[in-house]
Write the structure tokens for this entry.
Amino acid sequence: MPGVFAVGDVNGGPQFTYISLDDHRIVLDQLTGEGTRTTTDREAVPTTMFLTPPLARVGITETEARAEGRPVLVATKNIADIAAMPRPKILGDTHGLIKVLVDPATDLVLGATVFSVDSQEVINLIALAMRAGVTASTLRDGIWTHPSSTEALNEVLAGLHPSE
Ligand SMILES: Cc1cc2nc3c(=O)[nH]c(=O)nc-3n(C[C@H](O)[C@H](O)[C@H](O)COP(=O)(O)OP(=O)(O)OC[C@H]3O[C@@H](n4cnc5c(N)ncnc54)[C@H](O)[C@@H]3O)c2cc1C
């Protein structure tokens, strides 16, 4: 119905606070802006399940890529084995892993799972890279603050190999 908007959890979309925030931006744009914003602007929306450590995801999984018959490069590393990731050791929680999927043709990130301390932050960076077309090589070669969890990208993305 024209002029009636369903914003947030009630509209049947993803039920997250930041999706409700974006719904509000769309309605504001429709009412007072250019009316160009829609839910189709939403690429690479990350999610985090606040376990200990948190489990964060964005994009497609390796299983989904396989189901589509899509060739992907994959890099996986256990947090405890990532020498270039000091934050979990500092915080005393080295559980988890990082897994990143990359398109072999374009070097663009297709998806990632980050299961570690700070994953709710690292996944936002990866999601932004996906939206902005930043390549996996750029993330791999990035200059990141130390000690941080972002540094893991230097090491994990150096281990990309074809998915088996
Ligand atoms: C336990 C739990 C944990 C969550 N954790 C996260 C998380 O970590 N991250 C995240 O992004 N999301 C999380 N969510 C989801 C998030 O809370 C919702 O997606 C978000 O609050 C939705 O915002 P909303 O404005 O659509 O609805 P709400 O925040 O539910 O706001 C709706 C408001 O409408 C009011 N209302 C209802 N009926 C009427 C009425 N008839 N008249 C007037 N007012 C009415 C309600 O009282 C409420 O204040 C969590 C949800 C739950 C339940």
Notes: The mean pLDDT is 96. The chain has six helices and six strands.
